Here is the input.
Amino acid sequence: MATIIDGKRISQEIREEIKAETAAFAQENGYLPGLAVIIVGENPASQVYVRNKKKACEEVGFYSRVYELPEDTKQEDLNALVDQLNADEQIHGILVQLPLPKHLDENEVLLRIDPGKDVDAFHPYNVGKIMIGDYSFLPCTPAGVMALLERTGVDIAGKKCVVIGRSNIVGKPMAMLLLHANGTVTLCHSRTKDLAAETRQADILVVAIGKADFVTADMVKEGAVVIDVGMNRRADGKLTGDVDFASVEPVASAITPVPGGVGPMTITMLLKNTLTAARMKN
Ligand code: NAP
Here is the structure.
């Protein structure tokens, strides 16, 4: 029987720590860490994410603002808001909820955010810093995975780590963080030949592809630690991961469930980055 890595519990534990650190920070400095979230249009999933981010800020005692802009917002108006927030003393973290409506240029907006306030760590400056291992902010989802591994007592050094998925927000930074933690890392993608032969080598397997129940028991080495980043909606509306939990759990030594694994960690890491940004201002 595998250990079920309880992302909800670990996330709550870290949020309690952030709350205590925030209270101490406010007492010492006389102001609160501040996060601004910009949402453009009415994408229902984005609205849920933004509401959850605001709620999480309140929970740990941050100052927060949400800017809800209409669907037909012009690029120059969005850029002007980012400029205004870059100069705003009360705001230490700026997050633009993606995806933006099609007529807006995401890259242009992300490049405009002051790298010192880029709590999503999407700016090329912060991406570059992750490459050299000298970072202030880490992208929230891979940082959440690292925290789960650390708090479960998984030693990464010298282990064979396989990541499936090479997106800029999950797979690539994930591989880099495992490498910095002295794992021996293989990064797989849709052109990988004989994927199962690669994944069967993994002591630590991280899956981030966006395909429901894709990784099955025959792709997993006995005793591996399996981290499922995937979030897929089944036809019946239920959330499921990229790993076929029922078949893989008996083979793994530890595994994250979906929901309740990596998911809860992402916003928690955003809070952590915002506190770091407020500290950097000092
Ligand atoms: P993405 O940008 O769509 O990237 C998917 C990656 O998976 C690509 O690199 C793709 O390879 C690879 N891939 C697709 N099919 C494959 C296959 N059959 N075999 C091997 N590799 C394959 O996705 P993403 O943004 O990284 O997200 C991945 C999953 O994580 C999604 O389910 C998403 O919802 C979830 N997610 C969860 C959180 C969270 O908070 N828990 C946060 C972010 C994302 P190519 O590059 O060759 O196309």
Observations:
- The chain has two domains: 30-114, 140-263.
- The longest strand covers residues 34-40.
